[in-house]
Specification:
256 residues; mainly beta; eight-stranded antiparallel β-sheet; 3 helices
Amino acid sequence: MWKPTYISGCQLWFDANKIIGLNDGDKVSLWLDMSGNNYNASQSVDSYKPLYKINQICKNSAVIFDGIDDVLDISTFIPNGLTGMSMFIVSACLTDFKGTNYTIAYLKPVINWPYSGSDGSVCVAPRQSNVYSRFSGGDFGYDRIVSKGSAFTLISTLKNGTNQYIYDNGILLSNLPNGNATILNTNSTGHIGYGGSDGGYGNYNVAEIIVYNNYLSDSNRRLVEAYLSEKYFIKPQQSQYGTSIVNSLSRSLERL
């Protein structure tokens, strides 16, 4: 079976199916990083631990963050100094966020490295009615035409120098020359489910997170998206996006 680690630069790979020793509804104290780097996500405070749930999407497991105080910390991977980065997230937003300052990506995100200085922070917030991201510098994203509700989505967000991209289920929906060429001023501890002291907690059901320390080419990005799309049966709708994009993703799936 194809794995995300077949592509160079895989730094983090959290797959809820790989969580062992827990029963449905148990609290998660450790989410092992499957990239081989041992950049594990953990929580020692019992009341801050998210819940492990089975059969959340196509018989796959997921981790539920309550949006109140649940968080897993990543203390060993720091994106400072990177000029390229690629993140892929399969998640469902259980409580939407669209109000004052909703375009700020570190508010109620799935994953976040808080800022430690000016223009810092790396984060992704795939909400029901909007998706926003940040790679040290300005926030960028888009408002969905139709809310996803609590359905699972596949969000890919990439940085290549000052250029930043967001793909929703394999479809390019935002491409902006926005932010610094190099990631800087991020905190030494990253978080799943938490936006930092002024970012708040996100209410998400998270199935898988994959992070690379480089900008993936279109062909490699499609391979990761195809792997996740096939696994979770998340595919673009031809009526919404057109045949050319759907066929391109299908060809990537056939190669796996």
